[in-house]
Amino acid sequence: MDNRPIGFFDSGLGGLTCIPYLMNALPNERIVYFGDTARTPYGSKATGTIRHFAFEITDFLASEGVKMIVIACNTVSATCLGELRERHPDLPVLGIISPAAHTVAEKCGAENRVGIIGTKVTIASGAYREKIGRLAPKLDIHEAPCPIFVPLIEEGIVDNEIMDLSVRHYLDGFIAESAIDTLVLGCTHYPLIKDNISRLYPKLDIIDPSQEVVASIEGSLSRSGLLAGEGGPSGHMFYASDLSENFVNMIDRIFKGTGFKVAFKNFDLEARV
Ligand code: DGL
């Protein structure tokens, strides 16, 4: 039993989409979350830059005394998961692409035409294609980068025409040309526009891997004897490198009525240089 918190890291608020599943499955666990809102989006940046940011933030999470680090960001997982594991040999460091690939391999068959959407960096890395290819070599996979989604979501531009137009801009041609019937949300921000996508393409099956990521966290904690017990501290801590209103509101919405205590802190990148 281990009541230290779990460290979560994303470029912004995308990683928050895993939190409700985590609270449901493992209500005793505490979270220290870091959203790099000052430097989001990561998905169109050079891999060296992403690596530098990821080293900095995982070092910070480790210094907060976490028992595990969850890279709740496909872009970082695709770029430098192995290096992060080498950098933190005493901590389990979990990525998000392997559990997502398992879900796709389990849920899809040879009859499906599977579309994977993600950031430019995630799609260019080929990480999804490679991991799914190993598990289900016969799956018919197509990929498309959708770089404008993350900046719009971070700005809270979701329930409106601008987001619908952006969705159609990237997906109309992609879905029609490749006859996609199953769409995988290969970015943790995208569950926040799942309703837009399913409204615009009602026949599409959408795979949101967030839930499976939580199953992989639970498995890893349980195998290493790190699950939290009852009666530990109940508060969660949320750091952002630019504590935006959208970030705070979203966390308030997630925790409303749950009885959990939530604290926020602005993480001043300048002060740490
Ligand atoms: N949530 C991140 C991901 O899963 C978004 C990366 C970005 O900031 O572009 O890839």
Structural notes for this entry:
The chain has 2 domains: 6-96 and 211-271, Rossmann fold, CATH 3.40.50.1860; 97-209, Rossmann fold (3-Layer(aba) Sandwich). A 6-stranded parallel beta sheet has the order 4-3-1-2-9-10, with helices on both faces. A 4-stranded parallel beta sheet has the order 6-5-7-8. The chain has 273 residues and is an alpha/beta fold. Helix 2 (47-63) crosses helix 3 and helix 4 packs across helix 6 (127-135). The protein has helices at residues 19-25, 47-63, 74-87, 97-107, 120-125, 127-135, 149-154, 161-178, 194-200, 210-223, 245-255, 269-272; strands spanning 6-10, 31-35, 68-71, 93-94, 113-118, 140-145, 182-185, 205-207, 235-240, 261-266. It contains 12 helices and 10 strands. Strand 9 (235-240), helix 11 and strand 10 form a beta-alpha-beta unit.
